[in-house]
Amino acid sequence: MTTTDRAAEVEPGRRDRKKTATRERLITEAARLFETKGFDETTTTEIAEAADVAQRTLFRHFPTKEAVLFGDMVDLRIELREALAARPDDEPVLEAVRQAVLALADDHQRHAERRRLQFRLAASVASVSAYSRAVVQASWEREIIRAAAARLGVDPVDDPRPEIIAGAAMSALRVATRQWTARAADTDFVALADAALVATGDLGPTAH
Amino acid sequence: MTTTDRAAEVEPGRRDRKKTATRERLITEAARLFETKGFDETTTTEIAEAADVAQRTLFRHFPTKEAVLFGDMVDLRIELREALAARPDDEPVLEAVRQAVLALADDHQRHAERRRLQFRLAASVASVSAYSRAVVQASWEREIIRAAAARLGVDPVDDPRPEIIAGAAMSALRVATRQWTARAADTDFVALADAALVATGDLGPTAH
DNA sequence: CAGCGTAGTGTCAGTCACTGACATCAGTCA
DNA sequence: TGACTGATGTCAGTGACTGACACTACGCTG
Question: Which of A32, A66, A83, A133 has a 20 to 30 Å separation from B83 between CA atoms?
């Protein structure tokens, strides 16, 4: 058990290291350019050149320009899935979802600067907003749906409740995100998210 | 200004009639081409030529190719807003939202063929999915948020509940849409949507 | 360790969504 | 009727993305 942890983590060779290095260079250079020049004003060729690769290489690592911006979020889906799986089986569904989504919130807190850039661009650039909603957030939503369906013991195609729970949780997360983006950099994002997620369980009492 | 007064329904002149005729020709020709050739396989120039206008004219009527596909949904937002406003003030929020969203469902029922094409493409083409979520559905969601906030007497920026309600309702609608698309053409969409929306109020009881 | 297969990259040329600029023509209205 | 204005056509671009092909270096196997 030297560097191998659980699922046979083999030391990656030079080729793989170069590949991930290129990928990360693209992500950071893109973020820097988006920050300084704006999203639409930055071309994919500029990003590629800043990372010292050909434009074609950028599109071998990412399917779209938007995907470069959110490139550091790919494993968040897995993280959310594991957080959901880690909740005790006898915990109420909404509580399990709430706790798991706080793992996402915690990640945002840890990568505050990058997340703020992403949220800011999602709020101002149409194509980024669309990507964030339809690709990033939708992937999280699917994890919540899957987990909620499993806990409720139902088929998410027949029973609408898993998807409704997921939609409500994602809405809560969006509210927290918007509030956080509008406030000072040291605002506690997890607390905001928690407050919003608690309100998710209050839909009944909202009745009137 | 324009001709006489504005809010009232004035008989549109020949110029306006031509304009809307062009717009509608673009929408129907696009739908026909998307149906037969597929979305990605149809170029905007082909759509324009089928409608007997220049490609440039298409982009004066619609900002994107996806917007042409959903061109017949523009006034649905207004319809939803009015349905929300029409609900009695003393009705519980969730019930008002449910009834209003059934107005959307009813529209889908009435334009079954076109809606099925749109949903099918949204399920298979990434850019269409993104547009549907981030533009079309998001606009409905905003209407629900606004109405729910007004009914609860809260500011939707501070209080997450309006957005959570809206997110849950939109999720219910998406479930119903997916179920409907997968079933026979004469399936009762309103009934499916109603069943899903009823479940929205059951999040508390879902507890365990 | 020599040699072979292949993954990651560069280069080039092409497609297509979308846009600015300018000319033209047709409704509209004084 | 004549001036104004808004819808359209034409043309020339920009920039995101893609297929094809060649090349190099990594890594494995004999």
Answer: A133
Q: Does at least one atom of strand C sit less than 7 Å from the CB of A53?
A: yes
Residue type for position A194: D
Over residues A28-73, the pLDDT tens digits come to: 999 999 999 999 999 999 999 999 999 999 999 999 999 999 999 9
For an interface test with B, give the residue of A161, A174, A179 to mutate (most B CBs within 10 A). Answer: A161
Q: What is the pLDDT of residue A208?
A: 53
Q: Which residue has the tokens 């209050």?
A: A202
Contact yes or no for A140/A76 (Cβ under 8 A): yes
Please state, for a pLDDT cut of 70, what percent of chain A lies above it.
93
Tokens 């020949």 found at: B14
Question: CA–CA separation, B27 vs B63, rounded Å?
Answer: 13
Are B157 and A154 in contact by the 8 Å Cβ rule? The answer is no
pLDDT band at B7 (very low <50, low <70, confident <90, very high): very low
Rounded to whole angstroms, the distance from the CA of residue B92 to the C1' of nucleotide D14 is 53
Chain C bases near protein CB atoms (7 A cut-off)? 7-13, 16-21, 27-29
Give the Cα separation of A48 and A136 in Å (integer). 23
Residue A5 has pLDDT above 60, yes or no: no
Collapsed DSSP state (helix, strand, coil) of residue B188: coil
Read off the tokens for A159. Answer: 């029973």
> Which domains does chain A possess?
14-63 (1.10.10.60), 71-203 (1.10.357.10)
On strand D, nucleotides with any atom < 7 Å from a protein CB are: 6-12, 15-20, 25-28
pLDDT tens string A117-133: 999 999 999 999 999 99
pLDDT, mean of residues B137-142: 98
Which of residues 81 through 140 in chain A touch B, CB cutoff 8 A?
Answer: 90, 92-94, 126, 129-135, 138
The residue among B91, B135, B175 with the most chain A CBs within 10 A of its CB, best to mutate, is: B175
